[in-house]
């Protein structure tokens, strides 16, 4: 069953609440940094790239910078603590630069032109494992949480250099490893800590900001 896409108003409210929750969990103690992009700049980016960004991603671009944080993620079929790097709000110039950096992989692999057009960088999975992107060819409203092949948030291992074999699909586009079903779920995991209760029930350890900072041993 298809899931309905958020309206802009719903997306803005969700993102604002997510940042409130993140601060309540102990992160971003230095305060929220203002957005660096404007609606008109996002519109221009969409027109230039020939893409349509979801209301939720637009709301994130217009929110606040995030950076590195540790949270409980679903990875390798289990819940576990993991450092993540999320960009959050970035300038459109910075986003263009990140896209150019991602496309440098074309110099190392035999990749066809246009194979990156579905990817929007949003951070680094594992805070150093490799770039994490939105796959625009996997609409969030069509995602099946139980089928990782449909997941719209993906990542690319920086230690792999055979992207043509590992990530290139029959459609001529790059599709990375599954990171999260969609952007909403990723923000729930990372900003809201929505998997922490499941982790506590499984391991008997309650994740707190101090526990994360002390190494998150379990």
TrEMBL record:
It holds the Pfam family SMI1_KNR4. It comes from the Bacteria. InterPro entries: Knr4/Smi1-like_dom, Knr4/Smi1-like_sf. It comes from Pusillibacter faecalis. Gene3D superfamilies: SMI1/KNR4-like. The lineage of its organism: Bacteria, Bacillati, Bacillota, Clostridia, Eubacteriales. Residues 39-160 form the Knr4/Smi1-like domain. This is Knr4/Smi1-like domain-containing protein.
């Amino acid at each position: 069953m298809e899931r309905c896409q958020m309206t802009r108003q719903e997306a803005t409210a969700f993102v604002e609440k997510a940042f409130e929750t993140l601060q309540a969990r102990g992160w971003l103690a230095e305060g929220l940094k203002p957005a660096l992009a404007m609606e008109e700049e996002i519109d221009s980016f969409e027109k230039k790239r020939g893409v349509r960004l979801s209301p939720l991603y637009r709301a994130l671009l217009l929110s606040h910078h995030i950076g590195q944080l540790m949270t409980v993620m679903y990875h390798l079929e289990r819940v576990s603590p993991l450092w993540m790097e999320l960009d959050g709000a970035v300038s459109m110039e910075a986003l263009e630069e990140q896209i150019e950096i991602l496309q440098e992989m074309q110099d190392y692999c035999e990749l066809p032109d246009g194979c990156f057009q579905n990817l929007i960088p949003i951070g680094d999975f594992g805070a150093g494992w490799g770039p994490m992107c939105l796959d625009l060819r996997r609409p969030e409203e069509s995602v099946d949480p139980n089928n990782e092949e449909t997941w719209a948030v993906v990542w690319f291992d920086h230690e792999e250099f055979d992207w043509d074999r590992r990530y290139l699909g029959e459609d001529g586009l790059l599709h990375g490893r599954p990171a999260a079903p969609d952007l909403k779920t990723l923000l729930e995991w990372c900003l809201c800590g929505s998997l922490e209760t499941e982790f506590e029930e499984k391991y008997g350890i309650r994740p707190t900001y101090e526990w994360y900072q002390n190494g998150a041993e379990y």
